[in-house]
Design goal:
The structure holds three protein chains of three kinds. By secondary structure, chain B is mainly alpha-helical. Chain B is about 60% helix and about 0% strand. The chains are: A mainly beta, B mainly alpha, C alpha+beta.
Amino acid sequence: MRALAVAATFGVLVALVVVYFIFFLESGPAAIAATRGSDGSADLTLQTVPSYGHHPFPDWVSYMAKDPQGKWEHTTIFKVPAHTLIKVTIYQYDGDSGLRNAFLSGVSGTTGDIETINGTVEHGINANDAAHTFTIPDIDVNVPLPGINPNAKNPCGTAPCSLAEAHNTITFSFRSPGPGSYRWQCFVPCAAGFLFGNGGPMQTIGYMSGLIEVS
Amino acid sequence: MESASISVSERRISTPSAWSQVLGFNVIWAVALSIGGYALGHWLGSKIGINSAPQTETDQDDVAILMGLGFAVLGWMIGLGFFNYPLARIAGRPATLREREEHGAWRYFRLCTDHKVVAIQYLVAVLFFFFVAGLNAMFIRSELTSANATLIPAGNYLTLVGLHGTMMLMMMSAGVLGPLGNYLVPLMIGSRRMAFPRIESLTMWLTVLAGFVLLSATLLGGFPTGWTGYAPLADQAAAGIDSYIVSFALIGISLALVGVNMIATVMTLRAPGMHWNRLPIFVWGMVTTSILAVLAAPVLLAALIMVVFDRTVETSFFITSSGGSPFLWDELFWFFGHPEVYILALPGFGIVLEILPVFARKPLWGYRLAVAGMFGVALMSFMVWQHHLFMSGINSDLRPFYMFTTELISIPTGIIFLNGMGTLWKARIRFTVPMLFALAFFFNFLIGGLSGVFLSDVTSDVVTHGSYFVMAHFHYTIMGGLVFALMGGIYFWLPKITGFNLNETLGKVHFWAMFIFFNLTFFPLFAAGMLGMPRRVDSYNAELHTLNVFVSVSAFCLGLSMLVFLINLVWSVMFRRERAEANPWQSKSLEWQLPSPVPVYNFERIPTITSHPYGYGTPEAPAVADFGPHVIAGEGGLA
Amino acid sequence: MSEAAAVSGGPGAEPRHGVRIATIWAVATAIVLPLVIWVVGPHIPPGAMSQQTRDQHQVDVVLTALATPIVLLIWVYFGYAVRVFRNHGTAVVDGPPITGNRRIEATWLIATSALVLGLAVFGTADLLATGGAGGGEGPNPVAKPADWRGALPVQVIGQQWLWTFRYPTYGGVETTTLELPVNREIEFHVTSLDVVHSFWAIELGVKADAVLGADNIAFDKPFETGPFQVRCDELCGLWHGHMNTTGRVLSDANFATWITNQERKNAALTKQLPPYSRVYYPSPLRNAS
């Protein structure tokens, strides 16, 4: 009887350990799907916020994405269809911190190798003006995002930011590759307080790194 | 020194009431006080650190987290009562060994100075964390069934890899020294205790705490560095790395203390007549391992303290542009790290060379040479560390030297093979489960050792360095070597430790499944490495997909074989409870001349050692020891 | 098998185990060694795309060939012992009390020492003869290939988590793809902008750690045109497992066209880059915005 009780406790303990690890390993943001555009393209609407403002890391810089219902979600995992034109709009609310490798200040991999910044077509920006980049290295997509005017009167406080606050609007499009999971990340060392600016949010999916799941 | 002999009349074995057990210093208080300590330390740290570091008062406040963990360690030690004795001594109370005068299950949950209780605590703790880390390996292999990262998000995967590596390294370094070393060394040298019984208990409880502190990394966001903790990545990482630092430091302290305790025990507490050339080879294995632990672990501790300073007060030990260097971590870590991997090899040598003579029914062949070989390995292991840095760009003109020293270390390792071969010569082998594990040790370690020669050659190392080849190599030496030896040791000595026999059929099923699937798992990974699969990746070249699926399936079967062991262990000890004879293997060694399980004070009288323990084949050989007029009433006779 | 005689016969009938083991070992080696050298050998990675992979392949074949008799010796001995030196029946019988043999011990030590010395001499000679064998050798390589003076310098920059490449002899132009001319000595200068990475060009047989503030030089001479893979070989954080790219070895003419294109296409970007340098220091170190 005593042995049975010990064995049962033991079994419960093992189950708890297994469940805990599965729970830990699967933790992370949920994916959101790109919305279908009228011309067969898929649309992604994103914003970058200077600090997320909520648990667990309120002071971390972060990307956010708009779900098909128009609600801002805290995720960096996007589902897009394969071999489709993906139209991306990014509202950029953060100040500049400059690129470590200035080479990434040029636009590449997008339709026409261009981005539009507040309506103006650009092939690239000044490396020191970059606040973030949206880069998918495996398919050579790289779009630098310029920082907002440091003297702007109404900088964004807590995520999600609204269009009334100071921002830059960047649009570009690229063709999605074949099915698979592609990582994307920001290349501006924008993680405040971390060595080389590359720790914390830069190394956490859901903040400055994410996945594009092409199906 | 305190007197080694506590005479029989002084014993007062009392069983205090259950309530006084619960209310006394034990693990429940330790858990409560360490959680409270963490909260207090975190609060204090967040006050101290204000405005000195950019992350104060956030979830990433390293000062607060590290102080929290430090206070948790203090709370843990207070809760277990490790300060009672020193404080009592300061207050002028007499020296006692009161903690050992206990019976009953509660002594397993508190500070206990009986080396046999500590050893069993160690065994349970080490096996628990071994299985947790093994479970992590199963998750890793699940992710690697696909060539692209699919199952586990990238950051969590790195944490998983780091947890598996660090926990295995930590627990396996303590894995033989702790359970078998603490249990057997006093019995083998004819002592009633270890030299420093409270320190012995402390090392065990620090090991447990280290395991849980490491697991706490999952609550702090994980860590991306693997077990090698390379700076400056460790400087840069988020708060989870603080758990890695504190847990590895705890294990470093624990290892150094185990080593000091072991060396002091063997030097001072040998029974009369236990000359150095009568010492069982397992004890030599423990002594040489302890020398490595004492000399190597403090270097790790120093390096970890540097990382703490880099992370909290913004020193720049590992940051080039501020005058530090990432190479500093490389050097310090591997100066610890390479002796560390021999801390994971020497106990295995000791166990198999102890098991072989018993089941070959022959004396250990080349005893002196074996001891020399162990010392040779221990000495040489401090001279090879830069072979981990052949591609790093430092001291490239010293590469031939480190290539030479690395290859040199295969001479003392080769000696162990010669000892094994000599012992088997014209032997009368009995294929018991421990013997099967001992034989498999030589099979696996041969492959592990020879693959090391590929890694020692710089030209070949360009291909294999940092790849799955290395990973297969050290799994062959650590799992194929140490874990096989440890399993053999558990099957061999558990009847003595628990007093119950393990089931032989299940044992053989476990052995064959583990042996076959171990080789099927790790041998293909040599090829994976040479074909271009770096370590610690969650995606790899699609060409390697079939190979990896094969390896994963084998790894799952390997995991199931470990489950067979667990079932055997739990079932045999808790349910079947078949009483073991005092000397089921007919060994001539001293520990087997005692009853199973061993009585609290081991020896009624300290025996006089009359022979080395390998007197097989000589009918006129004297018994290993003279137990004096009061022979212990055990059911096993004296061999 | 006659092992029954080995146990049932008296001391006089004891077969000469040593001779039998040596014979089995010699026969096994005579059969297996040629198979290892000529059947398995050609398939041992990393192929023959460059001078360095040819050298590495050759060394691996030599080491495998040397390991084969050793493995066979241990396997044959243990296999023989397990079959012949076993206890038949349930009675526990002691073996002969042999505690050692000075001559065998000395022979073993001398043999392993000779082997080890031979390996060290072979390894050192090979390292020098192959010009570093494709491994990173730090800022002042001791082992250089014969034609190192005419080598094409290519800088490899590791950063979290991307490889970029600079060609100092082509205006310091930077690219994200690594393209190389065939039949020309390449001098890789590997460095990092942040943590430790390791540059592994798998089919070219090059491996060198990328360390901030360090210039790690490795030589390579590709012989065949075609693609090769680049991977990061040192754990460097979140996307370590994805820090890879595909490079190409091109004919001279194709390389000239490609590099000219890059120079033209990236002209504006090249102006923004810092001047070519052996190392780069990030600034600011701790980014507190």
